[in-house]
Structure formats: structure tokens, C-alpha cells
């Protein structure tokens, strides 16, 4: 998969999803962002960078934690995400928040600009995340902390989705996807260093980090209904797959997901799916 074309596709997908990102009666990124900030423990007065901040699920809790004497900077490659987050900051009166359009693979900040770098479900979308992460210690203070999340990948799970969804994917979906978007290729791209804890530790060590801690926890993914979840799936990483499916196949996938999720719904039709998430923390080495 060509990295330039891939990055362009990711950028456009999230640009187009900004208005509805993390909205629509589904909760996942917000509770995950709060939990990430809780584990990262930003302190009053610290400077925090949120990489691939989206609409601020981790950024705004971090801003509240560092307080008026601190600073919380969010970067995202999608300008529409930054515009949406700026509007959120204005509504909240978050004067210690700054939002910038920037490619997270090449952060352009001065040396020692941040005590803490966050990335909630964003690091995995970087075309060469290990190389990108190696550029971050330069902009972090001595002993600065890194904290990010990613899925807990399983060998046969469908990319972008918790394992419980795998049986709901009709055979027509992988058959309709181009070769470089086949599930096996996507698993190789995303899982190659994130799925194996020892490889993850080694990769972060080579990037200049130490004291790596990996914690897998379940984050509840809630939805008002199966249809609400499917609509929401067009606003996050799975949009990359939806955009590559012919309309008849996309319709078949929608029907299959709604039917499968209906079996998991409560009496009122709502959903609560315990979704495995990997929380990773580390420090800049000496």
C-alpha cells in the first residue's frame, strides 16, 4: 500500500467525517479518552500534546487537568477536525487549548515543548508509526511521558472492529475490497508491532522510550440502537472500508451488522459492547 496514497485517504476520510465524529448516539472515544488521561495523569501547569486529537476526546480532559497555568495542544491532519475542536474549545471557554493542523508523522515544535504526549486511537493510523514516534523525544522534556491507545488485535478479527463483530461480516465484503485493503493486509499493517507486547516494547525502546507499560482494559462502547452504531461507524476509522465498498455490498454489510447487533441489544434496543483497548504508557529515556 503506497504510504502517500494511504495518508491522503485517511486524511480525506476524517475530513469528511468531522461534523459527525464521535456523535450520533454512540459513546466510545470519549470514555476511552478520559481513561487515557486518567492513566497519563497530567499535572497542573504541564504542557500536553494530543496527537490526532479529533474533536478533543482526550484533549479537553487533559486541558482541565493541567489547568489555567498549563497548556494543551491538539494536532490533527484533518483541518475540519481542527475547526470542529476549535468550536468546542470556544463553547467551553477552554483558553489553555491550542489547535493546529499538522502531520503527526513530523511534529514541528521546539525542543522540550511538552511534558506529556497523548494519542488516543490515532498512532495506529500513521503510515510508519515507529519512525514517527522516534521524532517525539526531541520535543519532549527529560522524563517526559507518552500515553496512547490502540485496539487489542486478535489474529482473525476484522480490522477496525472488536472481535465480537467478526461473524457479522458477510463474505462479500473482503471479496469486494481491493488487494491492499484485504483484512489480512490491514492486520499486517496495524498489528505488526502493536499486537505483540514484546515487539511493542522493543519498538518504543528503539524510538527512545523506556519504562513501557501495557495495560489491556475493556471500554464500554454504547449505542442507542444497532442502526445508530452503523451510522456512527461511517465517522471513524471504519469509514476507510465503507468508502471502498460498492453500494450493493455496503448495503449487505449494513443489513448484516444491524441484524447481528440486534441480537446483542437490550430490551430497549440499546447496545453496550465491552471493547478491548490497549493503553500504553512510556517515558523518554535519558
From TrEMBL:
InterPro entries: Methyltranfer_dom (IPR025714), SAM-dependent_MTases_sf (IPR029063). The gene is chaI. Pfam families: Methyltransf_31 (PF13847). This is ChaI protein. Residues 44-152 form the Methyltransferase domain. CDD domains: AdoMet_MTases (cd02440). One of its GO terms (molecular function) is methyltransferase activity. One of its GO terms (biological process) is antibiotic biosynthetic process. It comes from Streptomyces chartreusis. SUPFAM superfamilies: S-adenosyl-L-methionine-dependent methyltransferases.
Amino acid at each position: 500500500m503506497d504510504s502517500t496514497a494511504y495518508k491522503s485517504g485517511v486524511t480525506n476520510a476524517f475530513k469528511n467525517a468531522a461534523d459527525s465524529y464521535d456523535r450520533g448516539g454512540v459513546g466510545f472515544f470519549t470514555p476511552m479518552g478520559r481513561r487515557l488521561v486518567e492513566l497519563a495523569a497530567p499535572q497542573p501547569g504541564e504542557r500536553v500534546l494530543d496527537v490526532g486529537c479529533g474533536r478533543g476526546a482526550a484533549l479537553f480532559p487533559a486541558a482541565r487537568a493541567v489547568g489555567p497555568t498549563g497548556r494543551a495542544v491538539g494536532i490533527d491532519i484533518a483541518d475540519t477536525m481542527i475547526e470542529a475542536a476549535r468550536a468546542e474549545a470556544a463553547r467551553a471557554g477552554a483558553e489553555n487549548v491550542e489547535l493546529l493542523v499538522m502531520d503527526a508523522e513530523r511534529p514541528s515544535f521546539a525542543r522540550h515543548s511538552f511534558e506529556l504526549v497523548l494519542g488516543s486511537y490515532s498512532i495506529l493510523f500513521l503510515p510508519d508509526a515507529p519512525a514517527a514516534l522516534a521524532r517525539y523525544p526531541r520535543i519532549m522534556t527529560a522524563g517526559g511521558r507518552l500515553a496512547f491507545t490502540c485496539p487489542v488485535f486478535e489474529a482473525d478479527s476484522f480490522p477496525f472492529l472488536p472481535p465480537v463483530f467478526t461473524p457479522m461480516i458477510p463474505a462479500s465484503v473482503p471479496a469486494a475490497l481491493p488487494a491492499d485493503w484485504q483484512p489480512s493486509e490491514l492486520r499486517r499493517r496495524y498489528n505488526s508491532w502493536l499486537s505483540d507486547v514484546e515487539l511493542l516494547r522493543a519498538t518504543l525502546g528503539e524510538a527512545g522510550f523506556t519504562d513501557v507499560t501495557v495495560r489491556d482494559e475493556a471500554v464500554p462502547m454504547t449505542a442507542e440502537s444497532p442502526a445508530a452504531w452503523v451510522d456512527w461507524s461511517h465517522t471513524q476509522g471504519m469509514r476507510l472500508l465503507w468508502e471502498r465498498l460498492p453500494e450493493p455490498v455496503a448495503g449487505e454489510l449494513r443489513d448484516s451488522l444491524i441484524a447481528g447487533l440486534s441480537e446483542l441489544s437490550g430490551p430497549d434496543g440499546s447496545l453496550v459492547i465491552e471493547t478491548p483497548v490497549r493503553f500504553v504508557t512510556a517515558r523518554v529515556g535519558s
